[in-house]
Write a structure and sequence with these properties.
Layout lengths: L7 H6 L4 H17 L11 H8 L12 H10 L10 H7 L2
Helix pairs in contact: 2-4
Length: 94
């Protein structure tokens, strides 16, 4: 995967899960709302990995609908258990 789309826990464990998929979904939503790739302005290196691990996320633009912004933030939770489940994601986009 590409560093900006990987959930922080993957850098530790190397294991993917439905929670890490939710994190990636939040990054894809950000890309859709901004038309930009996340962290396109910085090197995709170990420094970025540490910043993501420490909670760095892309800035949500002011023109992003509030419901989208809230959902992205929930997808980006550092704690995988706080991210939306696949069922919650499905119901959100129904």
């Amino acid at each position: 995967g590409v560093i900006p789309y990987l959930a922080p826990e993957i850098f530790e464990s190397g294991k993917y899960s439905t929670a890490s998929d939710a994190y990636s979904m939040g990054m894809i939503m950000w890309e859709i709302t901004t038309g930009c790739k996340p962290f396109a302005n910085v090197a995709h290196d170990i420094k970025l990995i540490y910043e993501i691990f420490d909670g760095e996320r892309p800035k949500i633009t002011e023109d992003t609908p509030e419901c989208f912004a809230k959902f992205m933030k929930k997808c980006w939770e550092t704690d995988p258990k706080k991210r939306p489940s696949i069922v919650e994601i499905k119901n959100t986009f129904r």
